[in-house]
Amino acid sequence: MSYENRDMVDKILASRGRLPRREVPDSKLSEEGGCGVTGFIASVPVRGRHIFTPSVQMHNRGNGKGGGIAAVGLSPQDLGVTQDVLDSHYLLQIALLDPKSRPEVESFGISPFLDVHKAERIPTLDDFREIEGLEIRPPDVWRYFVRVKQDALDRFAGENGLESMAPRKVEDEYIYRNSFRINQEFYASLGEQRAFVLSHGRNILILKIVGYAEQVGQYYLLDDFRAHGWIAHQRYPTKGRVWHPGGAHPFIGLNEALVHNGDFANYHAVREYLAQHNIFPQFLTDTEVSVLLFDLWSRTFGYPVEYIIEAMAPTTEHDFDLLPPDKQRIYRRIQSGHINSSPDGPWFFIIARNNPEENYFQLMGITDTSMLRPQVFALQEGEVQIGLICSEKQAIDATLQSLAAEDSRFCPIADKYWNARGGSATDGGSFIFTVADAGRGDGSKQLVCTNKFGEVVRTPDNQRHFKSSLDLSTQASTEGVSSAVEDGLAAADLSGLKDYCRRSLPHWSFASLMRLCQELEVRASSSDDLKSKAIEVLTYLNDRLISTGGKKRSSVLLAVRDSLSRIFSASPGLDESAGGIYRHIDWSTRDTLRPPRDGEGLLVVNARGFPPEGEECDARLIVRAYELGWKRFICYDYTGQRFCGCGLGPNSQGVRIDAYGSSGDYLASGMDGLEIIVHGNAQDQVGQIMKQGKLVVYGDVGQTFMYGAKGGETFVLGNAAGRPLVNAVGRPRVVINGTCLDYLAESFMAGDPLNGGGFVIMNGIEFDKDGNVLEQAMPYPGSNLFSLASGGAIYMRDPYHRVVEAQLNGGVFADLGPADWELILPYLEENERLFGISIERDLLTVKGERKGYQDVYRKVQAITLAVLAGAKPRSEH
Amino acid sequence: MSFGSVALSVIVGRARAARRLNTLTCTGEGGYPQELVPYADNVITQVATGLFGVREETIQYAPVVELKYAQGAKPGLGGHLLGDKVTSAVAALRETVVGNALFSPFPFHSVYSVEDNKKHIDWVKEMNPRALVSVKVSTPTDVDMVAVGSYHAGAHIIHFDGSYGGTGAAPDIAKKNIAMPIEYAIPKVHRFLTEEGVRDQVCLIASGGIRNAMDVAKAIALGADGVVIGTAELVALECIRCGNCESGRGCARGIATTDAELGCMVDEAWAEQRIVNMYTAWRKQWCELLRQYGLRSIRELVGRSDLLVHLDYLEEEERARYKSSPVEHRVL
Ligand code: SF4
């Protein structure tokens, strides 16, 4: 901030202090828990209806007492104004809790100072009771397109010494304060609450109700309303009766809308900090103070986004050490200046914003340094681009499915899914999707994804996206596929056919791929043997990260998964008289469950439609089926249903569950004997308290993986998010081929690995788009590895010794001897069998050279810590 | 009071007493010793942040599963079991390393919000649908919000653990300074849940510093449905409140110990009988009290704070009119 700016900042802040305001309580109005947040932004405007399904699927993250939606990058036609008006005018939306208050609101806060280009009551359903479950009538919302009258603006600038400030900035400040005045007069938290400003930015709007987020869209008729970016929020306030949506998210800054999942431990401190800058909250929630912070840092102080993120989620520990010196210098200054105001506690923000000066829209997600809230990012590129940020992957998939059903330029599967690492030197815990003019001269827009440091995140280029409109029958070149399938399935061993697929896939057109699927489907219907084989081949294509050539991997997966789903759903129902081992059950036929009869052995469960939890959920159905004698399960079409494989009780050896689709949280948590194979990414809280059995994940796993686990064998193809294996004891044996965000194996207590205890093998590798194994930049990027551990070991593939002592808190590097290698080798062999990651070619080969295991793997083991072995804990002295 | 912090014979003795009295006892966070399985119908499985010894099986044994989020004696602090107490038997049950202190983190790594809490409760219900789910929390100033949040998350029982409880192992500074006293917390929650219209749909249990029959009656009159007694039971087993519980061999009565020799001082049958004696004596006092008020069941006492007076707030002469409890009692 230059001195000139500083002077201006001081003037702005000082003059804000002169705004009249009422006393409001200095505590939060209501505690609230985590919530469901979802947001996306696309290079083309999309309809509001696409926020519907993801919102519904996240009902269990809210309680129907607060739902809200924000949209940015709107369509002038839908608003009945010209593009010019949309760009230049402030879109003031006022919720009238008391419908009769409008004349007063207008004469108090609008007509004397603002030129109104257009004013309307935004359309709604005639009767809110048409929406099932909506109990409280949403407020009438009036929308005004306004500019500040010149004389009012001049007076304002003169009174506050802002004459030298850019006129637009003065006008921004005017609008901001005018809304503050309106809220003070008609809302201020203790007074009589009659009206409040929902939003007042340019080309951005907010709506909220007492209900669920998707009901906002239903009530205010947003189904066909178009916008580039959308965010939705399901709130979980713990206070019982809520009569108006003032406390619901999103909250507005000026041109940004923020939703938040989590809560602050230092609300009071943040408030104090804001008060020192003459900023006073009126809605008394964490979310409001968050957006006030953001607005202060962004609009008033003029911080670049990177510094705002640093002020919110500081870079600490080892990550700080990894920053370049000049960055360290700046960050240190930022941290010391904002230590009191950094939100403390679990939080995750999604912010949608418009930058009218530089003409772009943004969607950003920021996670706290400790990564305590769930978060998933996704990106899809191609003819159109879309970036998504959600609490759960299934909400991302639901959004994409909804979009793809309407517009074939979207694919139901994203090209890339990932988690951010809070306060890190690698991505800064934040990703930003920016939609700006594509520079093609036709007004079309382009989306770019960057991290906190401005580094661009890309998906493989030169790959094509599959469109279902392609005519397949005319493709003669697919003939070869048919005979290869014929021969391949006839062979006793499927490796020939799999090999053929792996080799051919890069060169195949989509038509050839479809042909393969069709051929397999046709044969699958003729016998159980061929069906099993077809499933195996398609599952291979689904699971393995093999090259897809010029085709987008997401499109290939879509074709393969659809084909698998068709094969699964073709299995006869339990009430049909048919032979064979496969039987099918879904939500509509759930009452037909019965014990397996002669020859039957595999229950195929379509999870779609089952509630995600509760007595009626699919996980309970599996438990009942198991009690009736079923042992093999294929569960598919998951849309986030939780608890798969839980509840079977001890010693469930011999049971196997194959899970396809977006499986949900707590999968395999409690499992004690059975085997679960997840054909895709797994979510949060997977494998908690797991005791025995085998879990294989062909993808990534989420937060707190195997928390408190006692044993079992686990193989993960990709990465783990934060806090895997915390408090694990006994003998868990785990291979993670990627890495994890942080806090791996905190308080690990799994005995002596060489004497039956547990361990984690972390390979730190990833795959490129051609299916080659690459080393990740850091085998372990986090600052905390094996903290307070008292047993077990970590075997880390780290040929360049990139992991340093400073990352260990309670562990030491130890010699890795033949006994260690003998111990882990069988697990690496199984890993090779499952994922095709070769010990010789991939793991032990470094830069083309075959190395000894001692040169590639490092062992971290526990040391006896005084704090652990002592008679008194330090905390008492 | 889990395996690892008190002797096995004490744990089993308490379970046997619970069976005879038709009430419940809790595993604490140290896992589920096999010796408790015969009494499973009277044993609550606790799921605490360390998840020690918690398996699907132990959750399925239980009629009530308690999710321990915090403990009034040390809210905001995790649990700890000092290295000395981690004998081979303790380490075996918890599957950890002998001689190394055991830390339970705070809070649950998987639960940072009400909605996570709901998911956590749903998980327990999925594994054991017949169990009642109890949520054990401390008494922060917004304890009423915590209660209503837990109710909406699907908990059947809300267990408030106020300050002043805890064995000698809880740090003094934590015991006396962090949480709200239970006598403030109970009416606050009772009233709030009543206003919210959900009081009769959830069971409120209080604990923390409840020492005798009259304390129990007061807690109930303030609005609790029931209470959890810890230390008083130990006193019934001749605990002398010396405060040495945390060290491995310091317990003069062989109660708070995992030492094989010291543990022999308490015998299961004796412990059972002593605890039964204590509660039967308390029962007499309660019956007398109910008779005086003309109540037919202790349930009718719930929330009758109109029957209580706060002696400190009364003038001298007025105070003299109240007899101090326990009331003089006759054999009924
Ligand atoms: S006698 Fe002392 S050491 Fe033993 S339980 Fe009682 S207070 Fe603890």
Molecular structure report:
The complex is a heterodimer of chains A (877) and B (332). By secondary structure, chain A is of the alpha+beta class. Chain A has 3 domains: 3-457, Aminohydrolase, N-terminal nucleophile (Ntn) domain (Glutamine Phosphoribosylpyrophosphate, subunit 1, domain 1, 4-Layer Sandwich); 475-567; 699-865, no CATH class. Chain A contains 24 helices and 34 strands. The model of chain A is unreliable at 871-877 (pLDDT under 50). With 332 residues, chain B is of the alpha/beta class. Chain B has a single domain, classed as Aldolase class I (TIM Barrel), CATH 3.20.20. Chain B contains 12 helices and 9 strands. In chain B, the strands form 2 sheets. A 7-stranded parallel beta sheet of chain B has the order 1-2-3-6-7-8-9. In chain B, helix 5 links the parallel strand 6 (132-137) and strand 7 (157-161). In chain B, helix 1 packs across helix 11 and helix 5 (143-152) packs across helix 7 (182-195). The longest helix of chain B is centred in the C-terminal third of the chain and has 26 residues, at 268-293. The mean pLDDT of chain B is 86. The chains are: A alpha+beta (877), B alpha/beta (332). Chains A and B meet through helix 20 and helix 24 of A and helix 2, strand 5, helix 4 and helix 5 of B. Bound molecules: iron/sulfur cluster.
